[in-house]
Structure formats: structure tokens, C-alpha cells
Fold this protein.
Amino acid sequence: MAALLPPLRVCRGILKELRTMQGPKYKLSPAYSYIMDQFRKNKASSPPTASQLTVTGEMYCRAQQEAHHDSHTYLCLLASSRTHLALHKLYHGKGDRSREEVAGLVGLRLPTQPG
Amino acid sequence: MFRSIVRLQSQFGNILSPNKVCPRSPHFRFAFKYSSAITERKRFYQDVSISQGEGGLYEINLDRKKLKTPGGKLFTVPNEVLAIAVATEWDAQRDTLKFYTMHLTTLCNTALDNPTQRNKEQMINAALKFLETDTVCYRVDEPHGLVELQKNEWDPVLHWIENRYYVTIGSSSSILGPEIPEATKDTFRQHLNSYNFWSLTGLEFVITQLKSVVLSMGIVDRHLSVEQAVLLSRLEEEYQIQHWGNVEWAHDYDMYELRARTAAGALFVHLSSESSNVKRKLLQDREG
């Protein structure tokens, strides 16, 4: 089933996620160099002309499709982890109220110790 | 009365006196690593890097220290890609370490420690047992819209896997589920035997998350994307959401968590089972 995004969008998506995760120095990370390496190696041009041969020269390279699917999976992992964490912080991250707040809920104040 | 209690405590020895527990025992370190479930551990390292150790296995370094599994073993992965992905997970942690977001790390730890002492055969049997209650095979009788939706979305996947492996699975709407013929199980058993232990760990994880062997094989064979498989796994929920409305803090929260875990499991399977080799073709092919 080829319901995957085109490789350029997947690459951009992964790089955006890395930048969000790691800040401006994301270009120094090993993940960045590996991703760029892989995308350059597996770059396809459609249709491949004689002067723009891919690494293998095939029209439908199985390794290329596998790499495309894997990159899509990694993008899904990064994006959904980030979104899940954001939703967690938004809805489930508040934790317990402090004792002052709890007392304040019913209109009372905590007693102060003398001295 | 206090004297008798003290005598009782000293009889029980190690259990009640924590200072007698050996700090080097794996049980102690296991408990130490997991005390973070209650109190949060702060990020204690600046840099994360990978290095290649003995046997060609890759290790993760947090500053100068080497990462270890909860069971006390050295954390090693068989290939560089997985090591980079795990290092990225650790690098993504900010002030506190949130272990529940580090799915790849958790999977590696499970594969390395094998805390439940499973072997390949047990994992394959468990997966085949799951096939009998596979989500995609369990159909409802009503409401009619859901029956149609299940037929339109799940039947193609069933056909695909039946053609791909030359098996029959079928679907059923009875409470007992479909009858899986022995030949089907044997075919899958043979196929799953070709996966190594790490890949099977990942596959078991994906099956548990999606509640379906068929959908898991769909991802592993790259027939479905993770998003598609998650959608198919949650088909009834999506149907109800369209009918009754979406609740972000429950539905979206669950969906993104499921996507993250499934993607991690799928990536783990693919990275543990692939081997990249470059074959040089003869020059005359390229000039043609």
C-alpha cells in the first residue's frame, strides 16, 4: 500500500522533529548525519533518467521502499511521542495540589506556628 | 513485648533489615533503577554518545558512564542505527527522565534482560495463540454501520495476509472467534522461526499493542503504515468517535500513545532483522 508521504516530506518532518527536540545544535547530532546520509543514498528521481541514476539504477528498488517505510515509521515515532507528551502535560501533568490550595478550596487557611 | 518483636525480626534476617541487602545483587540494582517510578530522576548527564565495544556491539555513553540495563548488564545493541535512535531518545530528555517515553530503550532492555525468561518457542506460541482472538477476525453483528465498516476496512487486510502466506484465517461474529486451521498455524510458526530473538521481542510488543497478529504482520511486511494499522486497530473507537464526538484528553491521548509504541516496536523489529549489504553490479548494466 503506497499511502506514504513522499520522501522529501518525510525527511523534512524528521529534521523538524530533531530540531524541536534538540534545539539549534541538532545538526551536530549523530541522528542528523545518519538521516541525511540515508536520504542522500536512497534518493530517487521519478522517472530515473540515464544521467540521474540512483544507487542501484532500478526503477523499483526494494531496499529503497524499505528505507522509505522505515523513515515514515521513525517520523511517526518522533511526532506521536512529542504529541503524546504535550497532551500528557496539558491534561494529566498537574499533579497534586499543595496543602495551602486544598485548605483554600473550602475557604480555610492553614494555622501558622507561633515563633 | 518489644523484646519478642526484636527477636522475631532478627529471625527473618535479610528481608526486614535493609542494610543487609548486598548492593551488588541484581535485585537491589533492579529496585534502584525503578525507584524512579515514584520519585523523578533528574537528567544527570550533558552529552549522549555511542561507541563501538567488543564483538562489534554498540554501547551508549551518558557523559563518561556507560548505560546499563535495569538488570545490571551492559547495554549493547547489535547495530549502529538502533544505537543512534536510543541515544536520540536519551538526548531528548529535558529536566527529568521520563522512562515512559523511551520506548526503544525499554524494548532493548527487555531483549537484553529477558526478565520473564522466555525463549523463541514460547514467544511464537504466544503469538499464534493470539491469532485466535485477533481483532481483525472478530466481527460484530450490529450496528449496521460498524458491520459495513469492518467489512470494508478489515477484509482487504485479511485477503492480503491470506494471499501472502497461502493460509486461511477467516472472520467470525460468534463469541468463540474464528477456527484457525492447524496448517495456518504451522505456516506462521515456520515463518516466525526465521526471526531472531530481538525481532520477536519487538513483534510481541506490537501484537500486544495492536491486539492483532494480522495487523502486526501487515506493518512488519511493510504492507501497512503505522498510522493505518493503528486506525484499523481502533476501528470501533473511531466509529464511535464519529458518532458521539471526540474527547481529546482520552481519545487523542490514547491514539498518540498507541502510535508511538507501535512505531517503536515496528522500528525495533525492522532494525533488528535487517542486514544491509551492497552488491556491486557489473558496469555494463549501468551503461545500458
The radius of gyration of chain A is 25 Å. The helical segments of chain A are 7-22, 30-41, 62-92, 99-105.
